[in-house]
Write a structure and sequence with these properties.
2 copies of one chain form a homodimer.
Chain A lengths: L1 H8 L5 E12 L4 E10 L2 E6 L3 E6 L4 E4 L1 E6 L8 H8 L4 E6 L2 H7 L1 H11 L5 E6 L17 H7 L5 E7 L2 H5 L3 H12 L4 E3 L6 H8 L5 E2 L5 H9 L3 E5 L21 E4 L5 H6 L3 H10 L4 H8 L1 H6 L16 E4 L7 E6 L2 E5 L2 E2 L34 E7 L6 E7 L1 E3 L2 E3 L5 E7 L8 E7 L6 E5 L8 E5 L2 H14 L2 E6 L5 E5 L11 H17 L23 E4 L2 E4 L4 E2 L5
Parallel strand pairs in A: 1-4, 1-5, 6-7, 7-8, 8-9, 9-10, 11-12, 12-13, 18-23
Antiparallel strand pairs in A: 1-2, 2-3, 5-14, 14-15, 15-16, 16-17, 18-19, 20-21, 22-23, 22-25, 24-25, 24-26, 26-27, 28-29, 29-30
Helix pairs in contact in A: 3-4, 5-7, 11-12
Chain lengths: ~575, ~575
Amino acid sequence: MLEKYINAATRRVKSDLVLKNATFVDVFSGCLKKGDIAVVGDRIVGTGEYEGEKEIDCKNLTVVPGYIDGHVHIESSQLSPEEFASLIVPRGTTAIIADPHEITNVCGMAGCEYIANASKNVPLDVLIQLPSCVPATPFETSGAVLAGKDIEENITNEYIFGLGEFMNYPGIIYCDPDTLKKVEAAHAAGKIIDGHAPAVYGYELNGYLSAGISTDHECVTKEEIEEKISKGVYVHIRHGSSTQNLGNAKYITDANMRRFLLCTDDRHAADLKEKGHLDDALRKLVAEGLDPVRAVICATLNAAECYNLHFRGAIAPHYLADLVVVDNLKNFNAKYVIKSGKLVAENGKPLFDTSKRYLPGNVLNTVYLKHMKAEDFILTLKGKRARAITIEPGGVVTGCETVEVESKNGDVVLKGTDILKLAVVERHKMTGNIGKGLFKGYGFKGGALGITIAHDSHNIILMGDDNASMAKAANRLKEIGGGMVIVDSASGEVHSLTLDIGGLMSSRDAESLQSDSRALIERAHSMGVKREYEAFMSLAFLSLAVIPKLKLTDAGLFDVEKFAFTDINA
Amino acid sequence: MLEKYINAATRRVKSDLVLKNATFVDVFSGCLKKGDIAVVGDRIVGTGEYEGEKEIDCKNLTVVPGYIDGHVHIESSQLSPEEFASLIVPRGTTAIIADPHEITNVCGMAGCEYIANASKNVPLDVLIQLPSCVPATPFETSGAVLAGKDIEENITNEYIFGLGEFMNYPGIIYCDPDTLKKVEAAHAAGKIIDGHAPAVYGYELNGYLSAGISTDHECVTKEEIEEKISKGVYVHIRHGSSTQNLGNAKYITDANMRRFLLCTDDRHAADLKEKGHLDDALRKLVAEGLDPVRAVICATLNAAECYNLHFRGAIAPHYLADLVVVDNLKNFNAKYVIKSGKLVAENGKPLFDTSKRYLPGNVLNTVYLKHMKAEDFILTLKGKRARAITIEPGGVVTGCETVEVESKNGDVVLKGTDILKLAVVERHKMTGNIGKGLFKGYGFKGGALGITIAHDSHNIILMGDDNASMAKAANRLKEIGGGMVIVDSASGEVHSLTLDIGGLMSSRDAESLQSDSRALIERAHSMGVKREYEAFMSLAFLSLAVIPKLKLTDAGLFDVEKFAFTDINA
């Protein structure tokens, strides 16, 4: 192949593909250049004047290297990797550092393998980070546990690129032996370790970084960014659906420029479809005043350097021919996307087969549950005063409110209040665990809502004002193998949406899934869920026992500030 | 160890070593910071306020990361790796990318292994590049040939870091199969390939770089630097003894800053001892106007990035504790040097044992030669007109001059002319090859001079006006196992200096070697060698058949411009 590259580079033979008359970003010199870009096989062989077997005229268009998403959980799109690719590749993303933390919490290593194998069907490089913190906390029952020895065993797998975001920063800082075993295993395998250390500063940060952590996507303040950059951390500029820190770009200077990269972390299908992926981040960054060439460098060369992706992220000889032809560096509308030398998307549409699905049995039917009965949801209080969870719109932070509740026949009476029952039903190991709580202010009435996405262990979260409806909702989720459900106690009707892959993602296409999903969400709002909430997805964080204040897991009510289980009786 | 790092980083225990009250360069933010630098084992664990088992007060001093020489031939110092380290480590260099091209031309892979093993004795990381072009040209007889299959076989050796400067750029550009085999082997092994492509531009450069070449240390012009940077090449700023391009720093911009690094390539012991190593480059770069923090970044982080030396080249947690404490960023006088957490030099003096020498038999006694006789040096011309080599002072470029010479008894008569005989005697394989030529304008009279350093195959170069003296010189070089020799035909005296390691380097200490070397050079001048020449070392390039114009190898007179052997008869 080398001979073919060189013969084409020196113009002794035609190149396979030439982008003619292009303006392109020279990420090394930080400027725009003009010329043809010649491609042979999966490589760029040169810039200048070239002839190609195939030629694409790029007059009045600008060519940039393919974007690299430095940190993403595909699962947050609720789409299969294939369908996810069909949305982001036409936007210009050609490589992602994917941390299959969610599916691995449900399916263990089978989840990682699934993401890796499914990604082989599509023209997107999916570099798999082995999830480092499964489960995320010891306060709930997950589908899998990756202990130190499991990380040791799996980090050397060929399909594993590195070690995923190390959320358990206290485990590192306080030298938990099993935690350190994971870090040591990654170093021994020569693999990069992604970080996650929100608001960790000073000596604690020194401790965390002394473990050899390379990145952080949780920075938001000037102080935090500057300290982390100074201590060798690559800082992600995040453009997720809920969590965004595009403002980080304000802290880019001439001197620290190379240490910033882009990521999306968690981005919903609707945003991917309607707004875009990293192209949308670039658009917004430039609109907010970041130099467009710099923005491109963050999305390409910087990410390649951070993740040791040699000969990627630039338009130069021997570099991987991942190229995006955009209208301009303001709108970043991708007209053509070339992945490894092949034209794979045009005018926002994928040119690759998006219908193939890799669907192994071990990520399907993941809801293990005994048949639930109304009685399972009886909530007996000692008195009238109880701790209820409240939720802030738009975020994942919850509050704790002491409420007065009546009881009858050993069960709370919710009628006439704005309080609902909340239940987290273990669904992985048939432990029969049910965590029960109260939930105030969501607005829903007349039945139950349920979902098998419940961060990070993904048990079933149910909410409702009727025990029988809650049981029915759980049983339907079991029946469909995971997803979302609404039970209307008045009509007895059950409406659901299947998320067949681990109860987290659908094997369907994005369009039909979203259409059904919107209908279900609308139904939830019609049953009273306030518009400021995301109906189902706002529930999904009620079990995340690392974010304040009061959370509910299958093991019970958890006070995050005290970092301990707490009693519902106030 | 991780636990110890973290416990010290978080100040639960004392660090092993703390540099107190330091001002230090933050290479990530491009500025100076203040604080203590804490070290545990071979790692930096944090900056801030720390206590150490050992503390070094750095008040009024500045701490920078250890310097990394991006490309160097240790052999050019004529010193063993141990002695070389004793000169450069106290100057602040803690890692070098070493290409043992010279010794490998003499000894083959045994030369590479020797450099690798000898370097284990000293606190300097010597990363060995497998020489890619042995011999450098097919026009002479070298001690070894590393063909494609040899590179394939050896590139995967654990002690081999990458593939050395690919001087044979025509071989790549014109797709010589065995040349490409070498490149492919390096890529298959995932190893970096250093470049060497002086004045290669445009499509030829695209061809060369399409092979996946990462660096170039031969750039000198603005155009060349800008084009190479733009095409993804890391550009070295070279501070050798003869070849220097510190001026390259003028082309550093905010945008391309990360793509420049420092190297010395070829630097003599006297310069190392008297002027310094990369510290001298830094001093000069800053004197010439380069921002001192930028200069440090080129010498540290940039080199680490170029060569994928993770967690090196910065003062940050988990980074290798290679640190230089200098007086200031103007003079760069190293007060303390810390290598992998250990204090290894103080006030310019090594604190490590410099007397150990690894000296395997296979790099000693490398002069293989039948006993030479005066008749061997008879030079018979067809007529009176002959092509003679002339030499420009200070450089390695030679000229070609047609001279008139008398002959008598089938041998040229040199008496009364400023012409000398030149001979290149094959010394590796006892082929009996002798290339003969004429050499004009050097000034020497009354005997012969000889040396076993003759780029790049390192045969014996002899020069003189007396056949018997030339034979005597060759025989002495054989007897001492290589080095330099002067024969005085009047007195019959023979003076020599032994370079026992491959006939290129001495196992002695730098000081005594230099003293003897100076005496021998002085003797050469006293016998007429003009002061503008380097007496012996100027001879060493007369066989380098890639640099214009007329050269002499053991296979005959070579016209570099025609790239073919030529006849001495004009």
